[in-house]
Amino acid sequence: MSMKSERITGKAWVFGDNIDTDQIIQGRYLTILDYSEMASHALETIRPEFSKKVEKGDILVAGKNLGAGSSREEAPMVLKKLGIACIISESFARIFYRNSFNIGLPALLVKGISSEVNDGDILSVDLVSGNVENKTSGKILSGSRIPERMLEYLQAGGAVAWYKKNY
Fold it and tell me: 80 in a domain, yes or no?
């Protein structure tokens, strides 16, 4: 089962290098059982306004080493809950990358993305080819293709949904 084309277009929120899971959602909020409430604290130490201003369909862009730290699935989950439609980074911590797909949140590797995109730029992301068009600047960036199984997870809505459908 392969996807022919899957495009996401949204406004960019740009972050730097080494954004770890504790910066995405601090450990002290992990006792909150409602993901919507937990998400209201996402990235608050770096950009206190983020959770209040992010809109459904927006795209999070980061530099190198996004999601290092703990293996908490809550980190990508709060971003998805806020409406982030896709995460693009120059490199990911492996467990964060995998957790993103497990919950149905696309994660794309694009070298040099953080220096080619500004806050508020409109990006069009092709999840199948890995290409990202910055509609604001007109530049097209080539990313790594998402593995076929991960595309299947996205189509199903996450790894658990994929597993239930296939087994």
Answer: yes
- With tokens 């996450």, the residue in question is 158
Would residue 115 count as lying in a domain? Answer: yes
- CATH number for 26: 3.20.19.10
Residue 23's domain comprises 7-166
Give the Cα-Cα-Cα angle 145, 6, 39 (nearest 5 degrees). Answer: 90
* pTM (2 d.p.): 0.95
Angle at 114 between CA 108 and CA 118, to 5 degrees: 115
- pLDDT in 10s for each residue of the chain, 167 residues: 445 558 999 999 999 999 999 999 999 999 999 999 999 999 999 999 999 999 999 999 999 999 999 888 999 999 999 999 999 999 999 999 999 999 999 999 999 999 999 999 999 999 999 999 999 999 999 999 999 999 999 999 999 999 999 99
Q: Is residue 23 part of a domain?
A: yes
Give the number of domains in the chain: 1
